[in-house]
Amino acid sequence: MKTNLSVEKTDPKWFIEKEDEEFYYIVKNKEYSGDSKLAETKNMYISEILLANKIAEDFMSCSDQNSSIKYIRNSKNSNDVQMFKNGQLVKNLNGQFKIEKNIIIEGNNKFISYLKFKKLKK
Question: Is 77 helix (H, G, I), strand (E, B) or coil?
Fold first, then answer.
């Protein structure tokens, strides 16, 4: 699957630091949008997909995951990503992970949403 590993000046220190995943599944992601709420919504759904695939590698194929993420990233408004809200993914993960960090940074006519999800390995 495709990952974006670009580092920017605005990236918080916690976002760049390497994590030990011996006891936890950890997902860090950042998403961009001209609207802060849309950036956060996109990031939430994409991070949930990434977490679900870490927990169950057979949850989605790489091409399905990349297609879903591309669709979400290209969404122009929150209504475009609503189909993911009621999907089985959200229902299965609901309440099973902790949002460790969640910040939005504004700059250059865009908002960057940073998220860090953490889930205890069983």
Answer: coil
Report which of residues 95 and 35 the model is more confident about: 35
Residue 55: exposure state from Cβ atoms within 10 A (0-12, 13-18, ≥19): middle
- Going by the DSSP 8-state scheme, the letter that residue 33 receives in this structure is E
Q: Collapse the DSSP code of 79 into the 3-class scheme (helix H, G, I; strand E, B; otherwise coil) and give the result.
A: helix
66 falls in which pLDDT band (50, 70, 90)? confident
User: Would you say residue 87 has pLDDT above 70?
Assistant: no
Angle at 118 between CA 112 and CA 121, to 5 degrees: 155
CA distance 14 to 97: 18
Cα 92 to Cα 67, 71, 95, 106, distances in angstroms = 20, 21, 9, 32
Q: Residue 38's pLDDT is what?
A: 93
CB distance 47 to 119 below 8 Å: no
**Angle (deg, nearest 10), helices 36-55 and 62-73:** 170
Is residue 103 pLDDT above 90, yes or no? yes
